[in-house]
Amino acid sequence: MKNRIYEENFNRCKLAKYILPSGGYNSKIPEYNSEWQFLYDIAINLGVPNEAILKEDKATHTFENAEFSYEVIRKQGIKVDKAILVCKTFHARRAYLTYKTVFPPSVKIIVSPVTDGKDIRKDNWFLDVNKTKRVMSEVIKIGKYFENHIPNLANKSE
Questions:
Q1: Which of 8, 116, 137, 151 is 20–30 Å from 90 (CA)?
Q2: Residue 67 belongs to a domain with what CATH number?
Q3: pTM for the full model?
Q4: Number of domains making up the chain
């Protein structure tokens, strides 16, 4: 199940010259040194060329994913006009706002959400108490994450 979900994600990456899996150590996948290594291995197994895979293996939360990813892109000298952000459906709004906060306003962020093993979707999140709790925790995180960033987002769009 888990590999099918990631396979769907990486098949979407045929739309881009590079992919940039992001993430440091994750206790949910202890057999890997990082989320990046886990995603890298899947990408390689799916036939993504090594030279198309960028590396960010330090991030421990969403803001670091965005900050460290942008730093990798900048250091590589890659000009980005558009970025496709692949993330879990229930996490899409917070991830989008995070990347919009970190990346320059000239970069168009396109969100391509994927349903993970928890099967949280816009048509069912409110039908199951655990799914509802997960979605509502994201709403709380959005408030905490962006309380101080909303004015910056408004100024970036002007």
A1: 151
A2: 3.40.50.620
A3: 0.81
A4: 1
Q: Whose structure tokens read 């989320």?
A: 35
Instruction: For 20-76, write each residue's pLDDT tens digit.
Output: 999 999 999 999 999 999 999 999 998 899 999 999 999 999 999 999 999 999 999
Q: Which of 64, 76, 83 is nearest to 26 (CA)?
A: 64
Contacts of residue 37, defined as CB under 8 A and 6 or more positions apart, other chains included, come to 57
Q: Reduced to 3 states, what is the DSSP secondary structure of residue 155? A: helix
Burial 48-60 (b: 16+ CB within 10 A, else e): beeeebbbbbbbe
Q: Would you list the DSSP string of 60-76?
A: -SHHHHHHHHHHHHHHH
| Span between the terminal Cα atoms of the chain, in Å | 43
Q: Which residues of 9-38 are buried (b: 16+ CB within 10 A; e: fewer)?
A: bbeebeeeebbbbbbbbeeeeeebebbbbb
How many CB atoms are located within 10 Å of the residue 111 CB?
A: 16
Q: Tens digits of per-residue pLDDT, 73-103?
A: 999 999 999 999 999 999 999 999 999 999 9
Query: What's the CA gap between 99 and 84, in Å, rounded?
Result: 10
